[in-house]
Amino acid sequence: MSAVGPIGATKAAAPVDPGLRKVAQQFEAIFLRQMIAGMRQAKLSEDVLGSSATDNFVELADARTAESVAALGRFGIAAMIEKQLSGKGAAG
User: Fold this and answer.
1) Residue 42 has what pLDDT?
2) Closest by alpha carbon to 17, among 75, 67, 87, 77?
3) What is the DSSP string of 9-41?
4) d(CA 1, CA 36)
5) Is this prediction's pTM over 0.70?
6) CA-CA distance, 19 to 1, in Å (whole number)?
7) Cα first-last separation, the chain
8) 38: Cα separation from own chain's centroid
9) Of residues 53 and 77, which shows the higher confidence score?
10) Backbone angles phi, psi at 62, to 5 degrees
């Protein structure tokens, strides 16, 4: 018999370390913030209303957006980091 279970079989979920999950989500948020900043740098036109105050507001809004997206877990970066650091990502 093989060690692999039947398709669709579920294993009991291992306890989740809340600290590890939080750090993994923070890393994902940093990654997303950098990605958003890179997209903003690819401006195709000049910003007529641009100022340092507007730039600061946009940076804060981008940071909040990145944190919200990371908390949703849609990209999966945090889940991969959490899996790797918890030792569940090793090939078996």
Assistant:
1) 82
2) 87
3) --PPPPPP-HHHHHHHHHHHHHHHHHHHHHHHH
4) 49
5) no
6) 38
7) 16
8) 16
9) 77
10) -65, -40
